[in-house]
Amino acid sequence: MADYSEFSSNLPARTTTSEAPIPFARPGNLAAIIGRIEEAVEEETAGIRNDTGYDLKASNTRKSRYLYELTRAMKGGSEAEFLEQHREGLTRLRQKLAKNEAAILAHLNAVNEVANLLKNAIQRAEADGTYSAGEFGWARA
């Protein structure tokens, strides 16, 4: 059987009962989790902008894990209390996420533009014009 300990070392330990209470995490823990999310988002934004070989899959995995940690840490607590205590960190995170979104959209637009250029080049190379409707004047408007 495969050893999955390297993948499961960061997961919370299983409890014996399914109804085990999950205590609300201390505010410092939540601030640390928000900080890790901020770092991951900043790293991804810089990677997308500067490194053509940036590993988006690994970055998405890391962000998913941090979101899971944040969700677990918030269980059992008040959402209003969380928002009030961490308003500054959440505001910073929101700004960093907006920059990240802009970088991702720019990346996707560039990929789309390259794909369109390649598609057009392939179409021009395959068509020699012999039998196209445009060559006979039917397609001209």
The gist of it:
The protein has 141 residues and is an all-alpha fold. The protein has helices at 5-8, 27-50, 56-74, 79-85, 87-126. Helix 2 (27-50) packs antiparallel against helix 3 (56-74) and helix 2 runs parallel beside helix 5 (87-126).
Taking the alpha carbons of the first and last residues, their distance comes to 68 Å
DSSP strand (E) fraction?
under 5%
Question: What's the helix count?
Answer: 5
**Biggest beta sheet attributes:** none
Radius of gyration (Å): 25 Å
Provide the low-confidence segments as ranges: 1-25
Percentage of residues assigned to helices: 55-70%
Quaternary form: single chain
The run of helices and strands is HHHHH
Number of strands: 0
Mean pLDDT comes to 78
Principal-axis shape:
elongated
- Which structural class should the secondary elements be placed in? mainly alpha
Structure description:
- The chain contains 5 helices and no strands.
- It has 141 residues and is mostly helical.
- Helix 2 packs antiparallel against helix 3 and helix 2 runs parallel beside helix 5.
- The longest helix has 40 residues.
- The N terminus is likely disordered.
